[in-house]
Amino acid sequence: MSGDETAAIDAFEQLGLTSYEAKVFIALHRLSAGTARDVADITDVPRSQVYSVAESLEDRGLLEVQQSNPIRYRPVSVEEARETLRSQFEREQERAFEYVEAVESEPEGEETQENIWTVRGRDRVDDRSVDILSQAEHRIVFGTRLPELVTPSIERTLAERAAAGVSVSVVSGRDAVREQFAAVDGVTIERPPAHRTDDQRSGRIVIADDDSILLSVRGGEDGETAIWSSGSLFASVLIQLIEASDEMAVE
Amino acid sequence: MSGDETAAIDAFEQLGLTSYEAKVFIALHRLSAGTARDVADITDVPRSQVYSVAESLEDRGLLEVQQSNPIRYRPVSVEEARETLRSQFEREQERAFEYVEAVESEPEGEETQENIWTVRGRDRVDDRSVDILSQAEHRIVFGTRLPELVTPSIERTLAERAAAGVSVSVVSGRDAVREQFAAVDGVTIERPPAHRTDDQRSGRIVIADDDSILLSVRGGEDGETAIWSSGSLFASVLIQLIEASDEMAVE
DNA sequence: GCCGCGTTTGTAGGATCGTAACAACAGTAT
DNA sequence: ATACTGTTGTTACGATCCTACAAACGCGGC
């Protein structure tokens, strides 16, 4: 079995199929249609198991059955299968989150507790950054060495906030980053203070108003890990610390 | 635990979470945020298990962790969770079907084998009907007693085919059905021949050109079950049989 | 000491995986 | 006609893995 096929089977398992179901479904697409024996011959699924597996695939709407002797199976088209799985997914998601929304309680006091949260994984850090940025009302500082950490959603949010009258400044020593914002209206571009050594492992920094901050580093298993805090004493102190050291450098 | 909650947990399991993961996620939304003990107190998840479950939820991007003592957990917002799960789903689906598309073989001879296929479930019958209808090039006959079996997608496809110059005739004795097509251009409405007794269990009939036919019945576990055939001798013979009996009645 | 936190280990149950035996049937040779 | 052969569809049964669930442990703070 090829590595690609193993990967595809894994993916199908993530979508809720068993490995047998994935193998039978794939085999039937190879064959266009076929009997239990046909399927068993080109997979490692025992023939005796094909019948029940096919039945369960029929229940999921992924194949059709010809009641003959021998029984023949026919997979539905890829487009139809995708649509079927997708609508099933949407339905389940609706059921699940409907309830969560009904029971979730209001965040009391808008995050006034002294909390510093950890976020692992680049996409997650990205989401959280956008979240923090879009709550800014007066000023934003965004800094990074790495152009690839200026994702489209970040860029969009910065531009949107700038347009809303928020003072946005992007801090980077790298030209690649600086150029990304050269054309954006209302965005000030600055260089980091000279005294700050550029740690190779630093990721991005996000400051929104005087009460929200996010700081990420690269490395570790997840690629990027961030800590962030919003509305806490921690946040404002951290922000002051960071910015005070810059002010001093200027003087 | 309420029935709603059980349903929601089931739904989360369908989305790939374990029941513990679902319970912890829901509990954290109830609390807005909390420690392992907080969660254990309002669920039947043992406190000692909350830590590992939360870790796995963090990997999935469904909650964030505060590294303190005690450890505090914070769920991501419903919108963020939905988006995360959805993009994960899309990614997996892409991985899975990309491979299937690469290996699927061309249907040789365009369904010339003598095959009659079975389809169970109303939605599936609907899909197959639309599929057959949209391959019609010259004429279409669509019949049903039941207005609810004239779904929007059927209606759309019939109108689209009629617009493409296909001769479309809808056959029904029910006014509710007849009225649905009264306004559609290019669609002829007919009554079934008087000699044909209207079996209570009949569902829909779809005929496309002289080579594709689908026939469904209501009843059984799945609500609606259909047989269909395309390009086979079976199909053309069946079509002739059905239509011949009508012709005779006319004479 | 005492108590709560976080970790680790162990067991029971369920679902999937994988093997094997079985009756029913069709075709062939005797 | 009978016996033999091979296939089909069904059923039963261990092996294996993961989840659910329970209990114990080391640790640090009060």
From TrEMBL, chains A, B:
Matching Pfam families: TrmB
Highest taxon of source: Archaea
Annotated SUPFAM superfamilies: Winged helix' DNA-binding domain
All copies of domain Transcription regulator TrmB N-terminal, residue ranges: 14-79
Protein name (record): Transcriptional regulator, TrmB
